[in-house]
Design a protein that fits this description.
Distance between the termini: 139 Å
Structural class: mainly alpha
Strand content: under 5%
Radius of gyration: 40 Å
Shape: elongated
Largest sheet: none
Order of helices and strands: HHHHHHHH
């Protein structure tokens, strides 16, 4: 044995680990809670599908626009989109105008109704509404009778100067005119107008009992009752 060769290095004593480097592993329940929390699912992004609005426009493109755009130039496609936009805008405006109506005469009476709309009447004072009311009641058409009651109310307000009747005015305009002419009487007329709108434009059926309950409302809203 050659004593001149160095022997193996002596073993170093083990260095004790610091107490704070030893931590128990978390319980499985805690790990499962973190895995289930979307805030901690960084490596699994959720893929969001198209919304209902997006799916609708995709359907519109496939069924309407794609056939129109087939074999067309960019300029032609632009004109098609403009035409569609104008058509949609025109439809929306027509629906709004129908919803606004043309006052009490903006909608025809139901089938079998007495008299129908007075579209040809330029002066409400010349219309024999009392006869029309009697005819409606004789035929048990109480919904039409409510309409004639409201016309009688407008006729009285026109005679009293509270409104300036015109067949193309809306009921909302009459409410505004009555409020300006007679603020104390306006709430009664406003209530009568709402009832009429619900019955006539809302196409509500009117039973004899309901008509008997509504008739005093129109009579009380008349300036002749004041």
């Amino acid at each position: 044995m050659d004593l001149s060769e160095p022997g193996p290095a002596p073993l170093q004593p083990a260095v004790p680990l610091a107490a704070d480097t030893l931590r128990p592993s978390p319980a499985p329940a805690i790990l499962d809670a973190y895995r289930a929390d979307p805030d901690f699912q960084y490596d699994r992004p959720q893929a969001e599908g198209p919304s209902l609005w997006e799916r609708f426009w995709r359907w519109v493109y496939r069924t309407v626009l794609a056939p129109l755009f087939e074999n067309t130039s960019a300029r032609a496609r632009e004109w098609v989109l403009i035409a569609l936009a104008v058509g949609i805008l025109g439809w929306v405006l027509s629906r709004l105008l129908q919803a606004e109506g043309s006052g009490v005469f903006g909608r025809s009476a139901p089938a079998g109704g007495v008299g129908g709309p007075l579209l040809d009447a330029d002066d409400i004072a010349e219309v024999d509404l009392h006869t029309r009311l009697a005819d409606a009641l004789a035929q048990a058409d109480h919904r039409e009778a409510v309409r004639v009651r409201y016309l009688l109310l407008l006729q009285a307000l026109d005679a009293a100067g509270a409104i300036a009747w015109r067949r193309d005015k809306t009921n909302r305009q009459y409410v505004t005119e009555v409020a300006a002419a007679d603020a104390d009487h306006a709430p009664l007329f406003t209530r009568a107008t709402r009832v009429f709108d619900a019955v006539w434009y809302g196409e509500r059926p009117v039973s004899p009992a309901l008509y008997a309950e509504l008739a005093p409302l129109f009579d009380g809203a008349s300036p002749r009752a004041a």
